[in-house]
Amino acid sequence: MGKWPRSELESAFDHYQKTVASCRQSGDWRAWSEMFTDDIEFVEHVHGAIKGKKAMFDWISRPSRKKSDLDNWAVAWLVIDEDRGWVIVKWWNRFRDLGDGSIFQFGNITHLVYAGNNQWSYKEDAYSEAVVKEAASAWAARRDELAGKAAN
């Protein structure tokens, strides 16, 4: 048996998801950064390695990250490794709903290592920047197409 019971890992991951949703809505990422230990290691495959809670907050709070057309996500699959305290999840990061039923999204795999008390000591995000750009371009093209139809 691991250091934490499965129920605690599930609860901490649920807290993580709710906190991210709240931060995305408010644009204030302080609560997100508080979910990590002071010495958090964050590996972000496109932006590089970030060390420490303050550095993570500074990174996520940059003005360029404030506005996003990504507004929700869906869990594609989830693995909880009780022995290691790991949560590994594949998300579908979804762009804002355009109102026509189309879905534009890209996959991201996140690896979290639990440290207790609803905090994580390691986070790694892996995704393809090319796939992100492709999904964003397709979403923007559909947005512009719908805007053109509305103007006619």
Q: Can you tell me about this structure?
A:
Strand 3 (70-81) and strand 4 (86-95) form a beta hairpin. A six-stranded mixed beta sheet has the order 2-1-6-5-4-3. It is elongated. The protein has helices at 6-26, 30-33, 53-60, 63-66, 129-151; strands at residues 36-44, 48-51, 70-81, 86-95, 105-116, 119-126. The chain contains five helices and six strands. It is an alpha+beta fold and 152 residues long. The chain is 39% helix and 36% strand.
Layout of strands and helices, then pairs:
Layout: H1 6-26, H2 30-33, E1 36-44, E2 48-51, H3 53-60, H4 63-66, E3 70-81, E4 86-95, E5 105-116, E6 119-126, H5 129-151
Parallel strand pairs: 1-6
Antiparallel strand pairs: 1-2, 3-4, 4-5, 5-6
Q: Please give the alpha-carbon distance between the first and last residues.
A: 64 Å
Strand order of the largest sheet: 2-1-6-5-4-3
Largest sheet: 6 strands, mixed
Order of helices and strands: HHEEHHEEEEH
Enumerate the spans where pLDDT stays under 50 for 5 or more consecutive residues.
none
Helical fraction equals 25-40%
Mean pLDDT: 90
What Rg do the Cα atoms give?
17 Å
State the helix count. Answer: 5
Structural class: alpha+beta
Q: How many strand segments?
A: 6
Shape: elongated
Q: Give the strand content.
A: 35-45%
Features:
152 residues; alpha+beta; six-stranded mixed sheet
